[in-house]
């Protein structure tokens, strides 16, 4: 059975995966780029920008696990764009350019389904109104033997964790106190009982936590 | 000038330094002993129990910093005991035995001052109704050239951090999600700007964070 994975999901010390006041100009709200700074120098991020090279070491190693063996992604609507409610006729095709970094089917959870959006490079956005279980069934079918990535944002990851649908969770704790925004851990009391957890600190200052589902 | 230090202060992944439903039987509430498990095997804790030996390694190294160079402690009333409001005539002398592990003056913050309580081994509890600044002035005078430790609980540490009175903060992040209780980080947005922060993961599973106040 294919696994369900979350990668490179950054939170502040106080557990916020995004700040307050999110907008088109500030997808992470008042957190700005601080949650993803550890990621910027990695070859994985640089390749997304069409550049080569980058750091080696523990941040780069974790970052690179993102795409390996992934056959589909599920994301919340807020990760796709800043619009809320009915889709405006604004030509929005996601935060990415015409060749998004996913290169797989991507299932966007929304209460406002619309026709699929086929991009370059193998990424097709499917807009579906579905529960986590229903979305996962569709994504698994699209992924074949490969794994399904839960791409975020915060609410989507939290919902899949609450529904006990996640097999592997990689969280990056950034040493900042955001104070406001969207919290990852809310409603997940006792989560540790379902996972083996490892922590490793990086010289960059962040701590990588991996949660691997315990064998039944 | 003597420094103000916090040591061995454990929190859950979601930032709780104590669980909900605290009582005489459960000083950490529903968290039970889970927040302090990393500490139990250290020589520092074993010595508090009158035992010798214990673990070596990073948990033991951090734990041992607790008493070195400390001349006084400030603690919140809830760390001293489970009573609230007026002091009952119940002979309560703290969670510890007649020779508490502090061996210095200890200033207990309470809205209900009472005469000092002199214990064996150099520990004297002073019960004062004071702001963080006022309490610190008294503790500094008692400590002489030595440092002042803020001993907890959560609210007391948070108040001293909010008042920017802490020079060194050692936090231990335990990989559990408590879900309810008292949060350390609330109201401390931007705390990282005042400190240099290091993280180191321990084989025990916890992560030690040290916050050292930046030179002005």
UniProtKB/TrEMBL annotation, chains A, B:
Ranges for domain Bacterial bifunctional deaminase-reductase C-terminal: 8-189
Origin superkingdom: Bacteria
Name of this chain's protein: Dihydrofolate reductase family protein
Organism: Frondihabitans cladoniiphilus
């Amino acid at each position: 059975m294919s696994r369900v994975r979350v990668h490179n999901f950054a939170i502040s010390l106080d557990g916020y995966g995004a700040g307050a006041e999110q907008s088109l100009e500030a997808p992470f709200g008042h957190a700005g780029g601080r949650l993803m700074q550890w990621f910027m120098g990695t070859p994985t991020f640089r390749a997304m920008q069409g550049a080569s090279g980058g750091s080696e070491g523990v941040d780069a190693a974790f970052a690179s696990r993102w795409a390996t063996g992934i056959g589909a992604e599920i994301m919340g609507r807020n990760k796709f764009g800043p619009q809320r409610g009915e889709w405006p006729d604004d030509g929005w095709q996601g935060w990415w350019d015409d060749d998004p970094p996913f290169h797989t089917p991507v299932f966007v959870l929304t209460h406002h389904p619309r026709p699929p959006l086929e991009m370059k490079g193998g990424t097709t956005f499917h807009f579906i109104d579905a529960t986590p279980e229903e979305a996962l069934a569709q994504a698994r079918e699209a992924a074949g033997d490969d794994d399904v990535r839960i791409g975020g944002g915060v609410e989507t990851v939290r919902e899949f964790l609450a529904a006990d649908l996640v097999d592997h969770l990689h969280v990056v704790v950034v040493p900042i106190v955001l104070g406001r925004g969207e919290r990852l851990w809310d409603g997940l009391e006792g989560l540790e009982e379902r996972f083996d957890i490892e922590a490793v600190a990086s010289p960059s200052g962040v701590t990588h936590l991996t949660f691997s589902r315990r064998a039944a």
